[in-house]
Amino acid sequence: MDLQVEIMEQDEETAVLAAAGEVDAYTAPKLKEALLPLTKKENFLVKVDLKDVSYMDSTGLGVFISALKSTKENNSSMKLVHLQDRVLRLFEITGLIEIMDIEWGANG
Amino acid sequence: MDAIDIQEDSYKDLLKLYIDTEDEKALYGAEKISKSFIKQGITPEEIVNLHIQSLQEMYDDMPQAYLRGLDFLLETMISYGLALQEYQTLREKQLEIKSELKIAAGMQKTLLATTVPVVENLQIGVVSVAAHQMNGDYHHFITGKNGDIGIALADVRGKGIPAALCMSMIKYAMDSLPEDTMGPNKILKNLNRVVEKNVDPSMFITMFYAQYFPQTSKFLFSSAGHEPGFYYHGDTKNFEELKTKGLVLGVTSETDYPEYERTIKEGDMIVLLTDGVTECRYGDNFLSREEVLEVIQQHMHLPAQEMAEKVYKHFERLQNFHLRDDFTLIILKK
């Protein structure tokens, strides 16, 4: 299955990046290409909407880890929203949920 | 037809035979000849050229228009000839890489070799299989001075060569830790520092580390974001998920790993695994952890090693004998 990545909204201070599909070794570069540049702007907030991401593997987690490191270097921030259970579980097991700004469920 | 000589002459003969008789044997011969042409590196335009010459020898009265047409075909074939050469170079390079990989895989095997310790009253079963030539899973047993057993199980993000290189780093970092018995939380904290300094920002490692004390049956463990294992309580016949907190290795140096403790009683069992087991995908389906547990239950009456092998065989069959991810399963049974 493929992955679609699209910037839904963007202004001076924030952007919403929506991903849909599966994030794995083949599709993760696409996500990385869209996400990393947004984390390099100082004081910028990027929200990643994962509502339509049904599957993610460790390569996908790797993209978010490097994005998190980039936010720290560039004084920007990242928030992950609307995670499906299967994807959320990965962030829980790996302990990333403790250090990343994550909201899940329909109201997240 | 078997006696066909793979020379240009035989091409001419076969062509003539076919033109005169439409004999299928000639077509079969053409198929064989084309294979031998490929072997000898003869390019498509050379074959077209041979074809033109053969026709000219056979017929004096070839229409000019037809000959020009064949010349045109010859020109069109030139790029195919170049592509063929490129393909052959790539094939040679690929063979080279393959043999290098084979050597590297052998080295990794030697480097990561570990002996399953013999412990009184505790059976240990292990299966670890790489999806590709190099294994991104790592497991290691250490017997401490006081007879305590250290059990390390790790999984590097990704597969193949980068994962294997990273694994070697873990192995060296483990070897360089001080001999005196360090608890699981300290070991993970130390390794985290090494990994964090030395890996690419998108790389990380999950790791489970446990220490077992045979005299007291105490089992201490910590986890760095590793796939949770299972603890089977023999008295209540219940499986418990070994839930732990602790961040994967390599994300930030500022992190601590809580330590947990169980006392292994007679009839208890511990199942440790990597996500190659739980992320097992067959067709379009994912295996749920409940299903993994079912397979484990089906085989838990067996001795630990046999049980681990049977469970592996089950998942191998499920994925049509083609593993997508490295697979490691460790069973401890009392």
TrEMBL record, chain A:
Gene3D superfamilies found in the cross-reference section: STAS domain
Recorded superkingdom: Bacteria
Record flagged with keyword Phosphoprotein: yes
Keywords, comma-separated and alphabetical: Phosphoprotein
InterPro entries (UniProt xref): Anti-sigma_ant (IPR003658), STAS_dom (IPR002645), STAS_dom_sf (IPR036513)
Occurrences of domain STAS (ranges): 4-108
Keyword Zinc in record: no
Cited function: Positive regulator of sigma-B activity. Non-phosphorylated RsbV binds to RsbW, preventing its association with sigma-B. When phosphorylated, releases RsbW, which is then free to complex with and inactivate sigma-B.
Family: Belongs to the anti-sigma-factor antagonist family.
NCBIfam families found in the cross-reference section: ant_ant_sig
Protein name: Anti-sigma factor antagonist
Species this protein is from: Tigheibacillus jepli
TrEMBL record, chain B:
Residues of the PPM-type phosphatase domain: 123-334
Keywords of the record: Hydrolase
UniProt-listed SMART domains: PP2C_SIG
Keyword Hydrolase recorded: yes
Keyword DNA damage found: no
Top-level division of the source organism's lineage: Bacteria
Protein name as it appears in the record: PP2C family protein-serine/threonine phosphatase
Upper lineage: Bacteria, Bacillati, Bacillota, Bacilli, Bacillales
